[in-house]
Amino acid sequence: MLPSDPKLYAILDLGYVSATDAEEVTRELLKGGADLLQLRAKGKELDLIRDVASRLIPLCREAQVPFILNDFPEMAAGLDADGVHIGQDDGEIAAVRKIVGPGKIVGRSTHSLNQARAALAEGADYIGFGPLFPTPTKPGRPAIGLENIPIMEAEVGSALPAFCIGGINRTTLPLVINSGARRIVVVSDLLQAENISEAARFFKDSLNHS
Ligand code: TZP
Ligand code: MG
Asked: Which residues form the Thiamine phosphate synthase/TenI domain (predicted)?
């Protein structure tokens, strides 16, 4: 189940963190107050992803933070992950929900207002909305900017958790919050922080006080 008022969604991206460091970094993210944790592992071997996921799931469970696997519904089901995150080209929510099973979280990436509306209509449990800014974590994906955040929050974010994503860091955060974002995903600024738990706490506190 999703937490009732999630603010900070952290992604453990194996492009930034080695499989060896995954547990330690996850502990830091959880300590800093991450409300959801996703494992994202573009281009990695399935066996490696399964191994890392199986080591992170107990940590998340102990912290009562949902563990979401990016991209692999069958693997998520097999590992009894709390949910799966899919992109625009990964099929229908209903089909993915059938694979991961009842009670599991299914989230969708959206890159426009219309995609956000469609994900809501389709029954996604939450959405990502972005990238707000160009970001090396998702190369080649055009930035969508900040101007549609208020309408997205009003239309979609009032019905399900909507996480703004892409280029959000401790410097851009005030701009993002002032543009109306209530929930965010952060990848590189957390994973590259000198003190990951303190950085996570900064994002979380800023969102809680906004
Ligand atoms: N989807 C849209 S932007 C993005 C994803 C996975 C990457 C966000 O990463 P960062 O490092 O927080 O900009
Ligand atoms: Mg995907």
From this structure: 8-189
